[in-house]
Here is the input.
Amino acid sequence: MISEPVCPGAVKYVLFDVDGTLIDAVDNQRLVWHTWAERYGLDPDQVYRVALQTRPMETFAQVAPDQDPRVCLAALHELEDEDVRSGSYTAFDGASELLTALDAGAWALVTSNYEHRVRGRFARTGLPVPKVVVDAAAVTEGKPSPVPYLQAAAQLGARPEDCLVIEDAPSGVQSGLRAGMTVWGVNTSAAVDGVHRHFGSLREAVRDILAFSSGTRPEPPNGQAAME
Here is the structure.
């Protein structure tokens, strides 16, 4: 973990990743890729391992180089949309309490997924949707590029140094760091390289995220000194 920047007195904003951060979608992603791989006669486990590390078009190039990537992507989107309608998934503990407590204009979603799927999942899990959603269709460069988080900040009218990014994945963490923002990691057993703070679960981070958004800094648990 690295030292956390401090910008006292400024309005604060919170930018959330979605899958793996607010919505528990690991099993859904695995099932979607498993079904997709079976359609093409591929090893589902091998395909999923590649998909975890690459964007869909890059995945297709590696696992199905003889297939039309546009057709592959259409098939994947069909499966993902069906999962939104019928899949079984939940919001992480603390997500509803946290998002409901934040000021409507002070937070955003920054996702590599598509907005209609996010809205569908949020509707089914009872989570509120903010005014600003930056999705895969909104940017020309995805994470780990800083573009998605910088675009969200711009739409909120926020300075990067006044933004807190909540992430679970290395690419998202790098995106937030490259954007010049404070980045906290959640829902991983070990800290992702580069995060300013690490929480084993979203629930553990709720109090501190709300404190950041209000411009205060609570004392760390167990008497530990805050990082400067």
